[in-house]
Amino acid sequence: MKNLILIACLVLTFSCETRQKTSKNYQKVNSQENLKKPYVLMISLDGYRYDYTKMYQPKNLSKFKSEGTYSKGLIPIFPSKTFPNHYSIVTGMRANKHGIVANSFWDTKREALYKLGDSTTTQDGSWYQGTPLWIAAENQGMVSASFFWVGSDADIQGKHPTYYYDYDGRISHEQRVDQVVDWFKMPEAKRPHLVTLYFSDVDSAGHKYGPESKEVKNAVEKVDQTLGNLFNRLKELDIPLNIFVMSDHGMEPIQEGKNVFLSDYIDINDPRIKIVGRGSHSIIYVENNNRKLINELYRKLRKSQHMRVLKTKRLGRRYGYNKSSRTGDLVLDMEAGYYMYHTKPVGKALSSGGTHGYDPALVKNMRGIFYAKGPNIKSLGEIKSFENIHIYPMIMKLLDLKITERIDGKKRVLRKILK
């Protein structure tokens, strides 16, 4: 009997945690001028590499791709991590400008750590700069909704999408699809014109088993079946819906035996330094920006032949990663296939499978996908690769919304795909 009560409590707790939330701070209906504007659905397939569709031949994605416009590859910002890139897509900004410089990072001014998986930071809007698409829409009288996206469950500028969910990866594909369809079935006044949707399956399989594994193939097929169901149900709705399928980055296999241990080069326990991140990318923060210590670390770490040691102040415009309270003093960027640890794990197996975060300018496998189809999208077939920061101004143009701040993305890059 006690076990049955416990199970009932857990089920009730889960259902409460996954309930749709409604923003309380502003309008729940579209303004009159927004009623007849187009609709946009942005779908993120985390970790879906640029060549997976050709490699695994998913039926529904292959058809969707062939009927619209698609890029040869979608180029992520540096670093090619999940959080910076999802947020770049919806702000049109590179990392240094929007503030999410890695999945996890230290802020020397706040003396605090932003960390993937820690909802006390990821849902704290004060960490996020820029104006994401849903806030831009809401500010201009347009209803928006999100079934997950980096930042969508945070109170950015004190606001959320009109309808949203706190991130919870346990929520089924079916529930996500049902909710998105229900949003688009709402009465015109309350119907969101901008909806985001996210799936993590492909990324998770890529990390654990590597990009060219049967597990990734299965994950691709699973999301493809989900999207096929979603596309078929959305076809039945009589609304001008433009659908974008994209990914934040690709995936590189971790090569066996290709490991770098920072403790072989520096004292990782030095109280004057803080190291955040491992794998493909790491940031080192030096107490009081001690120039002598920075130079000493730089010289020692450069002895590794498979790791670029970059002084943050010299990264410049190419990376959008200039010196700030979050970007640290040294950035460590691994050679493709190599995996970095702070020290050699004791009693634990070294990582295998796949990862991302490498410099996208040097590693082609970091590229993701961009597929677009809808009544306001031209069917151009393949277009050349482009940086993901250019998606934001294109979506803003499609929805006839004003860009109110300086961004890195350019309207001209994707202007030709709009009718």
Tell me the strand percentage band: 15-25%
How many structural domains does the protein architecture include?
2
* Helix/strand class: alpha/beta
> Segments where pLDDT lies below 50 for 5+ residues?
1-17
The proportion of residues forming helix, as a percent range, comes to: 25-40%
For CATH, the homologous superfamily of the largest domain is named as: Alkaline Phosphatase, subunit A
Q: What is the count of helical runs? A: 14
Radius of gyration: 22 Å
Taken from the alpha-carbon principal axes, the silhouette is globular
CATH topology of the largest domain: Alkaline Phosphatase, subunit A
Please tell me the CATH architecture of the largest domain by its name: 3-Layer(aba) Sandwich
Question: Can you give a write-up of this model?
Answer:
- With 419 residues, the protein is an alpha/beta fold.
- It folds into 2 domains: 20-93 and 130-253 and 362-417, Alkaline Phosphatase, subunit A, CATH 3.40.720.10; 259-355, Gyrase A, domain 2 (2-Layer Sandwich), CATH 3.30.1360.180.
- It has helices spanning 2-17, 52-56, 59-67, 82-91, 95-98, 119-122, 133-139, 173-184, 201-209, 214-235, 291-301, 316-319, 391-398, 411-414; strands at 21-22, 39-45, 69-71, 74-75, 104-107, 112-115, 144-147, 163-164, 194-199, 241-246, 252-253, 259-261, 273-276, 281-286, 307-311, 330-334, 339-341, 354-355, 370-373, 381-383, 386-387.
- The protein has a 9-stranded mixed beta sheet with strand order 1-8-7-9-2-10-19-3-20, with helices on both faces. The chain has a 4-stranded antiparallel beta sheet with strand order 13-14-16-15, covered by helices on one side.
- Helix 8 (173-184) runs parallel beside helix 10 and helix 9 (201-209) runs antiparallel to helix 10.
- The longest helix has 22 residues, at 214-235.
